[in-house]
Design goal:
homodimer; alpha/beta; 2 domains; two-stranded parallel ribbon; 11 helices
Chain lengths: ~325, ~325
Amino acid sequence: MKVLVAGGAGFIGSNLIEALLDKGHQVVCIDNMSLGNTDNLNMAMAHPSFILYEGDICDRDFLSKVFKREKPEYVFHLAANSDIQASAKNPDVEYRNTYTTTFNLLSVMREYGVKKFFFASTSAVYGDKPGILLDENTPNLEPISYYGAAKLGSEALISAFSYMNDFKALIFRFPNVIGPHLTHGVIFDFVRKLQNDSDNLEILGDGNQTKPYIYVADLVEAILYFMNEIEDAQNPVTLYNIGVNTATSVKRIADIICEEMKLEHVVYHFTGGAGGWKGDVPRFTYCLDKVHRAGWTAECESDDAVRRTVRHVLGVSGVQER
Amino acid sequence: MKVLVAGGAGFIGSNLIEALLDKGHQVVCIDNMSLGNTDNLNMAMAHPSFILYEGDICDRDFLSKVFKREKPEYVFHLAANSDIQASAKNPDVEYRNTYTTTFNLLSVMREYGVKKFFFASTSAVYGDKPGILLDENTPNLEPISYYGAAKLGSEALISAFSYMNDFKALIFRFPNVIGPHLTHGVIFDFVRKLQNDSDNLEILGDGNQTKPYIYVADLVEAILYFMNEIEDAQNPVTLYNIGVNTATSVKRIADIICEEMKLEHVVYHFTGGAGGWKGDVPRFTYCLDKVHRAGWTAECESDDAVRRTVRHVLGVSGVQER
């Protein structure tokens, strides 16, 4: 099948592309290289079934030309701002890169009769609901970040476009994803800080912010597992929470990094407060019953995902063990 | 208080402006006159506390200049596409006039430190959920129209902007509103058809589509009733379903119009099917317990709202009784 991966040079998109090529699909990638980069596509670039269009999904004419030329059957939408701290300072980033990309992709699918859609949503759509087990039926979705708002707005668009145009859509809401090709986030920050100063580590918040981290290979496997199921689905939209049942605190991440860097005497300096930054959801519990019942479970636990990612980051950054 | 009404030359906005001026507020109106018109502002234009800016809220520079100059304290957002059938053919209308207007207003409020916001949302955010009593805690909001999607996306933006910038926001989700200054919809269509042919009336669907119609004066009264309550609210966003407990079928609307036009022998021709058009929610039941408990109830029942509106439409269109 010919598929289009929007945001395919980014962290999750590039991992997905490798898996789709492995499965024998033809892959059309669009990326504006704002967060993605061609290094992530090294494996794909050498593959005969891969083609890259460098350009902006917010440019409707460009997008329309790619669809007209390539005629994809399935669109995987992984183009978005993924740096919540950055957009907290400038919400325009989410309006443009997260919401408008969704609107434009759905509009061009409508124009060219493309019917199948995958969307990478987020646990951030739920907002901050301490003490509530978040499942797909949780009411009152009140995102507290511009990122979560743009993703929830995108889900609403997917609902309407799917109903109006007989699309079948698959939406995954997942928390932090980590692994190869990761470009930013707490693991990166800590490694960089410790590379600069191996005695001290500043940790935002009180270090107890605890989140489930899913390894990108598990997420990609879930996409492959469910991508064809939607054809037989009764509803236009099939929605799953995706994640791991375990979680890792920020302090535990620091510990794992120190272990992997063989640093034994690092002093942690906590900035204090419950959340790392405004718009951050400090702690949540995520119900995965629906996706487990449907036959998928993550292989890699949260701590393990962190450790594997740390090793990747250290390998890429070429840090010498002491 | 100096308030800004976005979309103030439109149907609901112009009714709200008259009430706000009556209450002694200074009113700044912005409208691009795409659906609004200055006829709706006849009363306001003669008032010394009123000023109109004709321009597009999608133009951020224009909007920013109005905020800089006028320094409003409270923003009432009634600028939106309101013609669901029109946007079904061209979703760009909702992206621009419904979603982007919300994003721009919130962004400029953030820029100028304006903290109070009213948003006109819709029962269309719930989607088509036959047999479910729709209350504010109903989960799985799955809009089936681009209009409903853009409104739900707007609610998500309001949640995030309010949390991030200490705004207090009031959101009303209401169904069809009718009354003076109405510009389109089923009542208009039927009157126009009957003015052209007083023997026959084509009715979309099977005529059993039954919806609650709220009279615009009741809605405006609800806005005035709750607009200052939000200051003391614990949550950034206060959300109410607003409406009437009664409902009127499309066939009953036709009957009322025929009665008011003194037409006794009109033959109805039904096009058939449950919904009037794709994206229409044919029938729903709306829970108003929360707003009733908070002390507000509509004065005008649904049938009565229809009859009053028909009289207004006939008065404006100058139809002679036969």
